[in-house]
Each structure stands twice: as C-alpha cells, then as structure tokens.
Write a structure and sequence with these properties.
oxidoreductase; eight-stranded mixed β-sheet; Dihydrodipicolinate Reductase, domain 2; GFO_IDH_MocA-like_dom; 10 helices; alpha/beta; 14 strands; Gfo/Idh/MocA-like_OxRdtase_N; six-stranded parallel β-sheet; Rossmann fold
C-alpha cells in the first residue's frame, strides 16, 4: 500500500487529508509537513496520519514516503515539486502545477529522467462527469464539437491568494483553469490563437476576464471568468448535430444534459453525477492505479493536457501584460 504524504497544512491540504483518511483501505495516510509544526501535528492528529514534520526537508528525507501531495501556494509549487522529485518521491501537485508552461515542462522532464510520476491534481479530469463527457463526444452521435462556452464567477477578489501577484494571484490560474480545462476536455488540437480582455486590480492581478480561444482543429471556445462577482456556473459543448449543457459548479458538475439534435424539440437526456465525498478521491485512486501498473504517467492526468492548459494561460497573460514576480 502506498504511503501518501502531504506537504503543507492549509485549507486544500486539509481537504486532501480528509480524502486520504477516507481511503485507508486503498492508500496509507502517512505524514504531513508544514513550516508551522503545530499545524502539521494538529492536522495529522485529526485525520490519523502516522507522522508529522516541522519543515518539508524532513518529510522528503523519510524513505517510507512514496507519494507527496503538494498543496502550497502557487509560486512555491515548482520549488517543492523539484525538491520532491530529487528526493525520489512521486508527486501529485495541486493545480496549477506551476505558474507557466516552461516551469512545468522542465519538471516533467526531470520526472521522466528520474523514473517518477508527476501529475497535476486537476481533479475535474478524474470525475465521473469528465468520463461521461468524453464518452458522449466519442460515440459520434452529436457530431464534431465546434464551440465550448462557459461562465463562472466567485466573489473573492479581496482574498490575498487572488489579489496578490506575489502569491500567484489572479482569476485565471485559480478558477479560470477550470474553464480552460473544460474547453480542452471537449476540443482537440493545440490552442493556436487567443483573444480577450481582462480587468486587473491595483497590484496587477487579473480579477475578471473574457477569453476567446481557437483550436488547431477549427473549433472555438468563449469563456467568461470572474473573481469579483458571483456568476452562475454554466457551460455548453455545441456540436454539429446537438449539444451538451453542463450545470455547475464547473469544477465538479452536478449534471449534464445531452440534446440529440439542433431543433427545439430535440430529444434530451440528463445525466446526474454523485459528487459525495471531497471530490479528490478519484484523482488519488488514479495516481495509485498508475503506480500499481508500473506507470510513470497517470493516464487520467496526462502531462500533455497540463501543458496545453498552461500554454493557453501563458498566451493570455502575455496578451494582457500580466506577470508574476520573478518570471523570466
């Protein structure tokens, strides 16, 4: 049974701790490390982890650790992933994997060189919704997907991790990646052209944006993302012979309705999804299954898809002049 460890003890780490605790028959909740030893000890005690560490170095030096889940703030992901890989650990890192595609590409190369698994914890890709969406599009009854539309918004522009570029802030890398991921789930090919506008706060963080994407296969996406107001989470995948409407939240959709035609009287089928638990269980199982099969890449969380989303985000930030401190 794989020993899972968590690097950090913040809110997202707490959610993963609860997840691992619920999967004790499949993986071992082994250790939690944080710069604040009291927080690490408290979280480990709450969910029955075997060990806690003050600082990350001790956790990475423990030979019993098999997989490290990284839940630190965005700008520290690359540093922590590299340290874990160099210590010989497999890594599941919270999204976004890194601040930009160049960082991610370098780390995927390091993982391959070391024979280790590195995956981005884009949990939406592992949910039953994603499987149902892919299956419906693959069976061909709706024709080729041509357009993805999505709207999502949360009133959180004053939260430091959103408001401050030094923390990797902004709507795009926090919730916008869910809209980009949905477009990439539905549409094939590289993002060959981006357009759109964004609103920045006084520190230069993007807090609201309207995004247009064109894919090399000829399809398009139109996405609206806001961190300064709540907006209904709605999306649609429009195909030549029908469409799929998706009910939010877009990171964990509750249902999708498949319209088997283009007219107002088109037959419809609504598929509802059981989103009980934390939602992180499928990604943990996917990583564990990949390692059990001797893989160094998780099929449900492929490197190519992480890079496709990050390259689109890079292009959008370049268009808007949004940069993070220390970026080359």
């Amino acid at each position: 049974m794989l020993n899972f460890a968590i690097l950090s003890a913040g809110n997202i780490a707490g959610r993963m701790a609860r997840t691992l605790d619920s999967l004790r028959d499949e993986v071992q909740p082994y250790a939690i490390a944080a710069r604040d030893s009291a927080r690490a000890q408290a979280l480990a005690g709450r969910y029955g982890f075997a060990k806690s560490f003050a600082g990350y170095e001790a956790l990475l030096a423990d030979p019993a650790v098999d997989v490290v889940y990284i839940g630190s703030i965005h700008p520290l992901h690359a540093q922590h992933i590299r340290a874990a890989l160099l210590a010989g650990k497999h890594v599941l890192c919270e999204k976004p994997l890194t601040l930009n595609a160049a960082q991610a590409q370098s780390l995927f190369a390091l993982a391959r060189e070391r024979g280790l698994l590195l995956a981005e914890a884009m949990w939406t890709r592992t949910l039953p919704f994603a499987q149902a969406l892919r299956k419906t599009l693959a069976d061909g009854r709706l024709g080729a997907p041509r357009l993805v539309t999505a709207v999502l918004g949360e009133a959180m522009a004053d939260i430091p991790r959103i408001a401050q570029p030094a923390l990797g802030g902004g709507a795009l890398l926090d919730i916008g990646v869910y809209a980009l991921t949905l477009a990439c789930l539905a549409l094939e090919g590289d993002v060959e052209r981006v357009g759109g506008v964004c609103v920045q706060n006084g520190l230069g963080a993007d807090i609201e944006e309207s995004i247009s994407l064109r894919f090399s296969g000829g399809a398009c996406a139109s996405l609206a993302v806001s961190a300064r107001c709540a907006a209904p989470h709605r999306a649609a995948v429009c195909c030549g012979g029908g469409r799929i409407e998706i009910d939010g939240p877009l990171w964990s959709p509750a249902a999708m309705t498949v319209y088997g035609g283009t007219g107002t009287d088109a037959p419809r089928e609504t598929i509802r999804f059981d989103n009980t638990g934390t939602g992180f269980e499928p990604e943990v199982r996917a990583v564990a299954a990949a390692l059990a099969a001797g893989r160094t890449e998780c099929p449900a969380l492929p490197a190519a898809e992480t890079l496709r989303v990050l390259r689109a985000a890079d292009a959008l930030r370049a268009l808007w002049g949004v940069r993070y401190p220390g970026e080359a």
